[in-house]
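dumping this here before i forget
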Amino acid sequence: MIKTHTSKLFYGKFPYVVKISDQVPGKSWLRFHGSPRSELLTACKELVAENEIPHRYYTEVYPFDNMHHFTRVDLNVFLRERKDYDLISAAFNKHVVKLVEPANTSHEDWLKKNTSIVVRENLIYGRYRYIVSFKSTGYNVDGDHNSEIIAWINSNFEDRVCGKDYLCRNGWYVRLYLTNQMDMTHVALAFGGQINTVTHVALLSEID
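structure:
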């Protein structure tokens, strides 16, 4: 079983996740909303309903295993309260494959107050605290992708060492990794509506 700490509130409200796994034999299972029928997962949902637990579900169905003749289906149960998390994880302990929880009460309180910030044990690539993701500007007449954004970054960070103060990755979306909040603010002011997302990382060790 895997156990990890919550980096951000799931769906903006759930700090806890219990992932329960079942193996449904054969290919002739009934399908409900595209998922195999699992008595185990149905029992989990009934327990949640009986206790009127605030929740959200996400089901994962894996390809049929031809060698062992079963289909694996996982149910992710997103929860708000520690008591509900303890109840579900204890009730289905033998079938739990992953648990996600805040490190402590302070961590949970901090997540609920700072829903736009991601909490990690380490900075991204061990260095970067901010990520600015830009909307794609497509190709220019020369066939260069996102050339306007790349040119601006090169011009404004020409006195920096790429890989230290900043890192630019150009895929369909340009992602700019930064160490400095002033740089992030400068980018946000320059591009405004062309920014897709901004990620701010807080370290678990920084939370009181």
